[in-house]
Amino acid sequence: MNTIIIFLVYYSLEVISLYRIGKEELEEIWKVFESKQLSRYGNPQEGHLQEVVTFEREWAEKIGTKYALLMAGGGTSALASGLIGLGIGPGDEVIVPGYTFIATASAVLNAGAIPVIAEVDESLTLDPEDFERKITPNTKAVIPVHMQGLPANMDRIIEIAKKYNIKVIEDACQAVGGSYKGKRLGSLGDVGVFSFNYYKIISCGEGGCIVTDDRLVYERVLVYHDSGFVFLSPSPKEVTIPIFIGLQLRANEIMGAILRIQLRRLDSILADLRRIKKIFIDELKTTGVKLAPVNDPEGDCGVVVGLQFESEKEAREFAQKEGVKGWLPIDTGKHVYSNWEPILEHRVGHHPRMNPFEFPENKNLRINYSKDMCPKTLDILSRTVFISLNPDWEDKEIETRIKACKKALS
Predict the structure, then answer these.
(1) Residues annotated catalytic, as ranges
(2) Measured between alpha carbons, how far is residue 348 from residues 96, 97, 314 in Å?
(3) Which of 11, 166, 342, 400 is the most buried (most CB within 10 A)?
């Protein structure tokens, strides 16, 4: 297989990917160059290859939804677009977990709403019980995040959301292709959001995507992400809502070309990650160490193995032992709510009148935060150790890593 393997260290803490990319992507890109039509819009009868449109159709089919929309700007833009598609705005609160990249919360502010930070449980995903405790009449949406490829407890989250008539937007940016009880992540909520930036399971360098079964949501996102499409698209009449002013987050044909090949790689990458994680789990559970619980082991992407200790001291000692190469999620900067300084300090937007914390509609919402507001989350993150996995490790590498972990645990 003509494949280039890329293996990166991010902030010296977590191994991330794109995992596999190679000649096939280059060949597909070259077809786009030869067509001389790089915009996503164009007439197939005039040689336009429809790479983006085809990817969107293939991605919707893969995830199991009616609609998919690829866009520039990554998961951040997709999250904001998804919230706007759901009609979230000033006067609304959106519950987000305290362990996620800052973009999950900042996207809420981009929509003019206020993020309310909730605890995670030992699965490192949103704690459903704290989600329910934090609901008020102003709560209009919740964003469960499938961190590190680990599925959130979607049964319980959706049950609570339905009880209180709350919209669910799944942040699957770190769990591209994962699943929960047989359904792909992103297809269980009202909207699913993905990232295809350089640090994700499959990638085109940058880019985001939303999926939904709701036609109205899809049309709102379509207009918001590219309100000029009406002048460019061959079929603007497909939109029934009035055109409003949004942004320009339009994807291009090179992105679509890369992702169509990356999509073909996805299931084999996940299969290899899951196979390697199962070997780690089977070997490490014999040591008696506590493994971080997973809400759906079959649907877990297999990006990391999580081990949990009684204290941060024990976790750090294990992570630093020779050959373990572990890392603590508490150390991952803007992935921990206590490090979201621009949000904690209400520094949003280029002008005070554009700051959602200053909107009169948000005056009586929960806009005050503190670094210790989610103590359970900080405790769990400080005594959990992740070991990042790579789908291209050979048997010798796997054996060496496991031996190092066993030695450290003993």
Answers:
(1) 200
(2) 17, 19, 38
(3) 166
Least confident of 27-31, 105-109, 228-232: 228-232
Quickly list DSSP for 338-373: GG-HHHHTT--SSSGGG-GGG-GGGTTS-----TTS
pLDDT score of 12 more than 80: no
CA distances from 243 to 88, 213, 219, 239, 406 (A): 18, 21, 10, 8, 60
Q: Which residue has the tokens 């597909």?
A: 28
With cut-offs at 50, 70 and 90, classify the pLDDT of residue 10: very low
Predicted confidence band of residue 343 (pLDDT cuts 50, 70, 90):
very high
CA-CA distances (angstroms) from residue 255 to 49, 62, 290? 12, 18, 41
What average pLDDT score do residues 95-113 get? 98
Contact 123, 145 (CB under 8 A): no
Cα→Cα distances 399→284, 303, 386, Å: 12, 17, 17
Provide the token pair at 404. 């190092």
User: Whole-model pTM?
Assistant: 0.93
CB atoms within 10 A of CB 32: 20
DSSP 400: H
Of the candidates 57, 42, 145, 159, the residue with the CA atom closest to the CA atom of residue 95: 145
**Stretch (H or E) spanning 93:** strand 93-97
What are the extents of the domains in the chain? Answer: 8-262
Shortest CA distance to 319 belongs to which of 304, 335, 334?
Answer: 304
CATH of domain 8-262: 3.40.640.10
* Maximum pairwise Cα distance, the chain: 67
